[in-house]
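Input chain follows. Return structure tokens only.
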Amino acid sequence: MAEAIDLLDSYDACYLDTSFVRFRDPLERAVMEHPDRVLFGSGAPRAHPNVAVMEILTLDVPEDAMRKVFSNNAGRVISELAPRSF
């Protein structure tokens, strides 16, 4: 996990998702160091999505970073998920 987070320093097009990461310290480190490059991933159907959501919600990270992980960052990677302006 540490090596994957380190890759974010070297590669601008690298993103990480939170699927199956059950360790608090690496999750907090990734979100604090690279809040624009971490995407929420639940690991469903092999893991219950509510568990994955709670793991992110209980991290000691700014609310803005949490918002990016849950929604904004996905739109940066997959254009169809980006907010639409009308």
